[in-house]
Amino acid sequence: MSRSLPPADSPRHSPSPAGRPGRGGDLRRLVEQGMLAIPGTPLALMAKLAEQEGYEAIYLSGAALSAGVFGVPDIGIVTLEQLVTHTRMLASAVEIPLVVDADTGFGGPAEVARCVASLEQAGAAAIQLEDQRFPKRCGHLPGKELVDQEEMCVKIAAACAARRDPNTVIIARCDARGVTSLTDCLTRLHAYREAGADWLFPEALASRDEFQRVGHDFGSVLNIPLLANMTEFGVSPLLPQDDLSELGFAAVLYPVTLLRIAMKAVEAGLAVIADEGTQESLLDLMQSREELYDLLDYDPAHPEAWHQAHDTPGGSQP
Fold this sequence. Notes:
Blueprint: H1 23-32, E1 36-39, H2 44-52, E2 58-60, H3 62-70, H4 80-93, E3 98-101, H5 109-122, E4 126-130, H6 149-162, E5 169-174, H7 182-195, E6 199-202, H8 208-220, E7 227-229, H9 241-246, E8 251-254, H10 257-276, H11 289-295, H12 303-310
Parallel strand pairs: 1-8, 2-3, 3-4, 4-5, 5-6, 7-8
């Protein structure tokens, strides 16, 4: 059964510096307690709201980062340096663990090692690598190409060797179901586990029966944490968390859900402003100034207190 979320008004903590030790360990403990729901939060403000609402981990999706932050498709355009910078911003904004989508790892084993070391230092608790050939595509689109199984295993081994904290989670995503077959996907997942992957992520499973097959083989029998992707408008059915847990999955991603909701709201807001000439009818749908300041832990009457709490310039008053 899925774990119920803590109440939205549960105590919050001030952010720790990016790279605080223990977040990978926190993530490992969380999946032992029950189904873990991980929303995609490409913006720091979204990440803080997810934490305030009781979610215990967040996800930086490559698709959400590419489209939502840079306005480009998810085809390998975002650089490692850009991903590291954004990882640092998100990890610094919250206390909960951050799972980072690193796509193909930006190259071969040496580049993968650099990628993992950089993202871990920036604050990632888990780093996800996929077995697509560069340039990659969205996992739910046709036309993907895979690297050889052996090549992916070498990259996974390089990723594991590069982490400084052994608790940092290395996630191996397998895209074989949408390219070859479910049988090839299962074979590859076994190999990726043998290569050292901590969690396994079978992408684009096409039915509940396929989730059941993978969940039985790896989650139920081998007790390996499995990650499900409940992205909208893809090839996978949108299964409830309780069902996924019963099928043997440990965690579930909602990678682009919040961005899609936000963009539809933006579209509606633009239409209202254009039609009515004012935003007044939208006020009840907005986050208020007070709610924003509460989320930021900011008192405008005492701005110096925020600076002092976060050790930034402006903390002293003349």
